[in-house]
Design brief:
There is one protein chain. The protein is mainly β. The chain has a domain of 108 residues: Immunoglobulins (Immunoglobulin-like, Sandwich), CATH 2.60.40. Strands 1, 2, 3, 4 and 5 form a five-stranded antiparallel β-sheet that branches. The chain starts with a helix and ends in a 10-residue tail after the last strand.
């Protein structure tokens, strides 16, 4: 047994010597650029004009929803007003989905969906409208509009695919006539 331990000790000492004598420099491999390559080395030669939503070559196309415009009608006597939201969506990962608009009407941090529209996969520009009473929240908390793109419900669950919000400025209700 003594001989076995000595042989193992010699083997271990030899292995440590080999690792200690190994060069500490990192190795960098290079290869010529290939056409159509998506490697980082080949891409850094290209100039980029920002993110490309429709460029399928990078494999990173995402579902998207964006607010195009928000129009508010003049407030009624009780402060209620109609808000029309024009939005653009791209739905790629589900055959059907739902676009909703909501506002933080009951709490400064919780949103209530006030209108929704079922949509099909693809891309389109749509409008949703709702009549709401804007809220001026205390402590400078903003009144917000939230637009959500939800995936088709499966097994009772809904997938939030994309969302965007915009701060709204609550307009004062008209003064009562005297």
């Amino acid at each position: 047994m003594n001989i076995t331990l000595r042989i193992f000790g010699l083997w271990l000492a030899g292995a440590l010597t080999l690792f200690a004598a190994a060069p500490t420099n990192d190795v960098q491999l290079t290869a010529p650029a290939r056409k159509g390559s998506s490697s980082l080395a080949d891409r850094k030669k290209e100039t980029s004009a920002g993110p490309k939503i429709w460029d399928a070559s990078n494999g990173q196309i995402e579902d998207l929803v964006e607010i195009v415009s928000v129009k508010e009608q003049p407030p009624e006597a009780d402060g209620r007003r109609k808000v029309t939201v024009r939005l653009h969506y791209i739905l790629l990962h589900y055959p059907k989905g739902t676009v909703t608009i909501g506002f933080n009407l009951k709490s400064a941090t919780k949103f209530v969906a006030v209108a929704q529209l079922p949509v099909d996969a693809g891309s389109a520009e749509i409008e949703l409208s709702a009549t709401i009473t804007p809220v001026a929240w205390p402590k400078g908390q903003p009144f917000k509009l939230v637009v959500s793109l939800l995936g088709e419900p499966r097994t009772g669950q809904v997938s939030l695919l994309a969302a965007v919000s915009r701060v709204m400025k609550p307009l004062p209700a008209p003064a009562p006539a005297k």
